[in-house]
Fold this protein.
Amino acid sequence: MTPVPANSIAPMRGSVRPVRAALDIDGRSLSYLDFGGVGRPLLALHGHLSEGASFAALADALGPGWRVIAPDQRGHGDSDRADGYTRAGYVADLRALVDHLGLDRFTVLGHSLGAINASHLAAELPERVDALINLDTAAFIPAQDASPLAFVLALPYSAATREELLHALGPAAPMLGGALRPLPQGGWRLPFHPQDTVASETAVHGDHWKQWLATSCPALLLHGTSSQVLTAEHAAEMTTRRHRTTYAPLDADHFLQLRDPEGVHAAVQTFLAGI
């Protein structure tokens, strides 16, 4: 999609403390955070270079009335790397997760990569998805000569110490430093593999209109009016072509949760209160 800004992987904060668990999928671990709550479940899907913890502030804002579940999607955060990063693979993971958790009905929210996966998941499980929330992501993403995330290929995946890895990251250290992971055998690693990230981002390119239009549940399209990914014209078309879709503009770029977290929380809360 597009490079992420510094401090893009937000630390967990707020009064809601999640429980981390993992699901084994054919010998591969899919890690997720369950923020609890007694209300309806909301599956929250992050974008590239991010992780489930980026939804901690949203879970806090929604409070106990919603049970936010935020996986580290394959190859991200604490989840294992996968053999591939196709839409079918991502969606199969998510289906396994909601089945494992016994979620007969749920709302799904996603940003960037997560928004594409949310649309595809909803299209496959229309009878189980109550509502769909898209954070600033187009239904058609044109292919590019080079991935906008290609800069990560110059980053080391691991180093002997955290300090050594931070030094090697250079200008990317402020963006990624808070999300580095210790390796079981010693050393530290990035929360994603550079080659996997570029492969995954490249696989996002294409036409996702069929999935965006496949469901009739209520939907919210949050649009950053200075977005690098979603133009005003495309956002208008996504809103008018899909029945029961609410449009909410925010004065921000593609990284809505960083630029205007309060605006995101208010828009999501208002939308959820009406479904």
